[in-house]
Write a structure and sequence with these properties.
Elements (H helix, E strand, L loop, with lengths): L2 H17 L10 E3 L8 E4 L1 H7 L3 H15 L3 E7 L2 E6 L1 H13 L12 E5 L11 H19 L3 E8 L4 H13 L5 H4 L3 H23 L3 H10 L6 H15 L2 H14 L3 H25 L5 E4 H4 L4 H10 L2 E3 L5 E4 L7 E5 L7 H16 L3 E7 L3 H13 L8 E6 L2 E3 L2 E2 L10 H19 L8 H21 L7 E2 L2 H4 L7 H21 L14 H11 L1 H11 L3 H20 L8 H24 L9
Parallel strand pairs: 5-6, 5-11, 6-7, 11-12, 13-15
Antiparallel strand pairs: 1-2, 2-4, 3-4, 8-9, 9-10, 13-14
This protein binds one RNA strand of 76 nucleotides through helix 2, strand 10, helix 16, helix 17 and helix 20.
RNA sequence: GGCUCCGUAGCUUAAUGGAUAGAGCAUCUGACUACGGAUCAGAAGGUUAGAGGUUCGAGUCCUCUCGGAGUCACCA
């Protein structure tokens, strides 16, 4: 039982005895006491005022008195304006510190035997990963780690969008123009290699379209179809999709290729596998650099026909209905949404059919009671519909579905656009932040460069990536993010390196403890806490609660902000108090023990964000 | 237009319905010849977009208005 639960229960007993009313323990509000008041935890008294028929402070004093008498941990209290501030005794804090230190899993909940699947990244195989995938991957990875720490068994997965017209474009361009070149022969990373042919296809198509616009047929079409005052340029911009479907030679070839792929034509399938394998090799490299991984991969080429049995199921249960043309629909108008098609008239699947089928398949594969989809907020509506439909079908996991929706990453110049070349490539970005960390390190210190070059390089990599990862996880996922390249590699202030630095400081202390064989036992006799010590201790104490809150809300930014606050308290503590030169052996031992526990929590918290700690910086 | 999300200091942001809205960046002023200054202390900067309402108490909940984004495909 946590201290908060202990206090809640005790308050319920107090109210029962004093005023003869029962209350639900969960309804008792207990907050950490703000720094400007004395106390550790604060009970909000207002809800009891009516029952007590007393002024807030009088009721608070009575409840406080009861708690002090009946709860051993409560040593003192004061009431101010309806808030009952409770002070916990040093025995409690000493015990807590010892537990936090010896418990290697401090902040981790015991296994709860429940399984959750987290889907993230889910790239297309026709181009490399970009900045948006980086946010997605960091959120997905972090969310997985947090759920794991909260006691769940987590299955990390991605669904690879490996089929469709996009990859066929790359394939066709490669076939026509590559003259047998490969990533191996050119030295280009596989995903970039394939992406280049996708771009080439788009460029060739553009050329074809522009020359087509000069033909008499095109001119006649414009003359006949354009809206009043519409310039030729605008007309043809609008017409592009229709042109691609009706007139383009490349368009015809690419559709032909897709048909051959669907028919299982061996040559086409072989080429498709070849090119996707190049891409996967590239992705693996990027994922490794980012420090993320997956337990199970699903491929859209395997899943894109799924879901038809669910459609039958839905028809039988009356959740779906069939229109005259044979298409199948779900009517969500009673819930304030639209009617959505779930199966085309020709019997083929649409996007949501596939997702319905995939959800059921995953449930059968892993028996997950929860599934988290890390997908950008563009698809909010899709997931509302998907979850609603699964609920109406009575799927057993329907209540455990969560869309971890995050805002798009934009540049200061606006939204990223492939066509305008404003996409920030993931590999470039990672290299860039590490380079900047190098530059910065060289300016700082020359002493560290001559020892252990390999360890030094690894530390710098951790610092650069730490800056990037913290920058991207510290904001609430829901918020649209303006990616400012300069701020993302800041190393001062509310940043990853700020936190890493506090850990490095602690490391330094611990090495000295080791070297000098400092006796830490006197720590338990130290009780006269200084404000900086108490603040730090209280901050440390909040770690397990923070992990639980982050898991409950699927929100890594709670962890990021917590780590920052803890590091901030530590820096202040460090600056205000002498550790090795403390007044007494007890104070010295206590501060060292506290430092060690804080170091462990910081390391553990940052690990939840996928951030590693450097040895030195 | 319907639906969803967002709007907090110049900028980036925090705050299970609780106390004087908390940080960082940028600006200005300071800090021990001491455990590492990627640090610390301080100043300045806020009508939480606006107006009503609910509540003992609202940045947070409700209604309306304004501004921004997304979505409203038999695309994925």
């Amino acid at each position: 039982m946590t201290i908060i639960e202990t206090l809640q229960n005790a308050v319920v007993r107090a109210v029962e005895q004093l005023y003869g009313e029962t209350f639900e323990p969960g309804k008792v509000q207990i907050n950490t006491t703000p720094a400007e008041f004395t106390g550790d935890y604060t009970v909000v008294i207002f809800p009891f005022v009516k029952i007590a028929k007393k002024a807030p402070d009088a009721a608070g004093a009575e409840i406080g008195g009861f708690l002090q008498e009946n709860v051993p941990e409560v040593q003192g209290f004061n009431t101010i304006k309806g808030f009952l501030n409770l002070e916990l005794g040093t025995a409690y804090w000493q015990h807590f510190l010892q537990t936090a230190l010896s418990d290697t899993g401090f902040g981790r909940q015991p296994r709860n035997g429940r399984k959750v699947m987290v889907e993230y990244s889910s790239p297309n195989t026709n181009k490399p990963l970009h900045l948006g995938h980086v946010r997605n991957c960091l959120l997905g990875w972090s969310c997985s780690r947090i759920l794991d720490a909260a006691g769940y068994d987590v299955v990390k997965t991605q669904i690879v969008n490996d089929r469709g017209v996009a990859i066929c474009k790359s394939m066709l361009a490669w076939q026509k123009f590559a003259e047998g070149k490969t990533p191996g022969s050119t030295g280009i990373k596989g995903d970039h290699f394939v992406g280049d042919y996708y771009v080439l296809f788009e460029n060739k198509t553009k050329e074809e379209y522009e020359s087509w616009q000069q033909t008499p047929a095109a001119k006649a079409l414009y003359a006949e179809k354009h809206k009043p005052d519409q310039p030729e340029k605008d007309f043809f911009k609008e017409y592009k999709n229709k042109w691609f479907n009706d007139h383009s030679r490349l368009g015809a070839e690419v559709r032909d290729m897709l048909l051959r792929w669907e028919a299982g034509d061996p040559d086409t399938v072989a080429l498709w596998q070849q090119m996707n394998n190049w891409v996967y090799a590239g992705f693996d490299e990027t994922y490794a650099k980012l420090g993320v991984a997956f337990d199970k991969l699903y491929y859209e080429s395997d899943t894109y026909l799924l879901g038809k049995d669910i459609v039958d199921d839905g028809l039988q249960k009356g959740a779906f209905f069939r229109k005259e043309d044979g298409s199948v629909w779900v009517d969500l108008t009673d819930a304030g949404y639209d009617q959505k098609v779930v199966l085309r008239a020709d019997g083929t699947s649409v996007y949501i059919t596939q997702d319905l089928g995939t959800a059921r398949m995953r449930y059968h594969d892993f028996n997950c009671e929860k599934m988290v989809y890390v997908v950008a907020d563009e698809q909010n509506y899709h997931f509302i519909v998907l979850f609603e439909v699964l609920k109406r079908l009575g799927e057993p996991y329907a209540d455990g579905l969560h869309h971890l929706s995050y805002g798009l990453v934009e540049l200061p110049t606006g939204r990223m656009k492939t066509r305008e070349g404003t996409v920030v490539d993931a590999d470039d970005l990672i290299d860039e932040v590490v380079n900047l960390a190098w530059e910065n390190a060289r300016e700082r210190d020359t002493e560290l460069t001559d020892v252990d070059p390999a360890g030094r390089a690894e530390d710098i990599r951790r610092i650069g990536l730490g800056a990037l990862k913290f920058y991207m996880t510290k904001v609430n996922p829901r918020k649209k993010m303006i990616f400012n390249p300069e701020e993302s590699v800041d190393l001062q202030g509310q940043t990853g390196p700020y936190i890493q630095y506090s850990h490095v400081r602690i490391n330094g202390l611990m090495q000295r403890v080791e070297k000098e064989g400092v006796d830490l036992a006197p720590a338990k006799n130290y009780t006269a806490y200084r404000p900086e010590e108490k603040e730090l201790l209280k901050a440390l104490h909040e770690y397990p609660n923070t992990v639980l809150a982050a898991a409950r809300e699927y929100d890594p930014s709670h962890i990021a902000n917590y780590c920052y606050n803890l590091a901030k308290s530590y820096h202040r503590f460090w600056h205000e108090l002498s550790i090795f030169n403390a007044d007494s052996a007890q104070a010295k031992a206590f501060r060292l023990v506290l430092s060690r526990a804080v170091g462990q929590a910081l390391k553990s918290g940052m690990e939840l964000l996928g951030i590693e700690m450097p040895e030195r910086m």
